[in-house]
Amino acid sequence: MDDGGNRKKLLLMGRSGSGKSSMRSIIFSNYSAFDTRRLGVTMDVEHSHLRFLGNMTLNLWDCGGQDVFMENYFSKQKDHIFQMVQVLIHVFDVESQEVMKDIEIFTRALRQLRKYSPDAKIFVLLHKMDLVQLDKREELFRLMMKKLKETSADYGFPDLVGFATSIWDESLYRAWSQIVCSLIPNMSVHQSNLKKLKQVMDAYEIILFEKTTCLVICSSNDPGSATTTTTTTSAPTSTTIDKLDPKRFEKISSIMKNYKESCTKLKSGFKNLVLNDNIYVSELSSNMVCFIVLNNSNESHQLVSENIKKASQFFE
Amino acid sequence: MSLENTDSKAMVLLMGLRRCGKSSICKVVFHNMQPLDTLYLESTSNPTMEHFSTLIDLAVMELPGQLNYFEPNYDSAELFKSVGALVYVIDSQDEYMNAVTNLAMIIEYAYKVNPSINIEVLIHKVDGLSEDFKVDAQRDIMQRTGEELLELGLDGVQVSFYLTSIFDHSIYEAFSRIVQKLIPELSFLENMLDNLIQHSKIEKAFLFDINSKIYVSTDSNPVDIQTYEVCAEFVDVTIDLFDLYKATQNLISDGNEQPKKRELKNVSQLANGVVIYLRQMIRGLALVALIRPNDTDTENCLTVVDYNIDVFKKGLEKIWANSTTDAAKVAAIDNGDNA
What we know:
The structure holds 2 protein chains of 2 kinds.
Chain A: E1 7-14, H1 20-29, E2 45-52, E3 56-63, H2 67-74, H3 78-82, E4 87-93, H4 99-116, E5 121-127, H5 134-154, E6 161-164, H6 171-181, H7 187-201, E7 203-210, E8 216-219, H8 248-263, E9 270-275, E10 279-285, E11 288-294, H9 301-312
Parallel strand pairs in A: 1-3, 1-4, 4-5, 5-6
Antiparallel strand pairs in A: 2-3, 7-8, 7-11, 9-10, 10-11
Helix pairs in contact in A: 6-8
Chain B: H1 2-7, E1 10-16, H2 22-31, E2 48-53, E3 57-62, H3 76-82, E4 85-91, H4 97-113, E5 118-124, H5 131-151, E6 159-163, H6 170-181, H7 186-198, E7 202-209, E8 215-218, H8 225-244, H9 246-255, E9 265-270, E10 275-280, E11 285-291, H10 298-338
Parallel strand pairs in B: 1-3, 1-4, 4-5, 5-6
Antiparallel strand pairs in B: 2-3, 7-8, 7-11, 9-10, 10-11
């Protein structure tokens, strides 16, 4: 079904100007949100092959959204485009004037998917949310999702997941880390290993990041896997964690990414970081970074790094 | 009396024609505003003050550009007497002939009132200029200012020029230099830092003000702007990460029944062995150092660094204790005069 088992095809669709290429550049090419202004129109389909977690290759098909190309996708190239798709990421511009037309294109994509790859997962992103007033965002998102859920259920994709995103805050990282996590096969293994590690180290919280993109893979305080069906309302998990910022994963993602970026000025990559003897950020394996918050800040330095070294073999 | 008060406090006066970017500079440097958001700033109508205390207490006063300071009702003499540095902002993307004339007038006046004033000129908004243009603009402005001053018979006045933009770190760099001129203890600090880096394999050390990311002092090695940027960003990383888990740290200290205030410490190692090291010092200052352990063991190297920095911190505390007693003395004399 998926050739080689580890090659994943992701379709990134949406109408022209909705911000597809900007997202891709920020998450996978280290652009800053400001830099994305320089991006031009995507001609036809732009392919990128991204290695993720070592053995997984993401084939991201960034489909240019101008009507000419769109027509082409649904007619001439339909079997080429819609075959063997693992994930469809459809992007909606919340500022769009032609909402009905946006939805129509979405349904046309769904129709092709039902025919060519009925097992595909569907994600929708309501993008450019920063342009909507704060108090209106929630309602707009709810209305739009209701409509889109109905549409997608009609085409045999009942469990649609949606996110409100913007390139100017952390919501983009949240959405993408959930999308990418849905593709990781041995998620439950990572999850249980992480729980054990947390116990061994007497840690308050451990978060696992992918190394190059800094996307969150999983965290020790997450009861389910990251592929939850809940959407924007982030569910606080246990009582002790309640006090923490629910957006902390995304924030750490973007902080770490900025830091890595600034490390390149010294012509080097990031290796580890110890803050106040209590937060440890370290490479766990060749493609994962762990972020550990200890309960006890008097732990010996060597003990912790030894533990991390020992743990790394379980996360290869 | 009010004069004496401001004397113990270094004051920086920010001036320039309208729309040259004074408020934007203030917001970006002292309020962590995103440079792009400054597009929407209103025109400033009243003088505004920013206070921040690092090793010295610093006040930055911003004057509206459209004001005429030579109107008799405005007490500009008093104002110029009390400031340590006059920062004049020139918009390099605009026609700057007027600005240069205005600058010369202000310098003439300020110098007459207060000959010990430092005069600093920011050639601002250079982000829009190409490399050649920058150099041309700087030379042109320097030359014209020189001529204007010569005409006024003030050719002995020292004027420093900086090329700045809020979209990169040049504005922080310029402000750092300006603030450093106002710190009387600077030479001691520099010596201390020199001593520190010599004995602990440190390549470069900065003493940062955490809030503004202005560096109060650095060792005598030349400042490489990239190193500065990395160190300034490291301050951000440290504070952001610390803030995320601050709640847990309070919780933990409550459990131990000793809510001691922890000082920030952050050590990060890069793949090529370089270590970036941050330690909180006194009064919102942080020491950020770039360490190259080369062939020696990193752990050992860090232990030595830790020890040396402890010594350095004690030194800082001593300097600070002395400078506060000085200020207290001034205040005491001041009160005595009044009584």
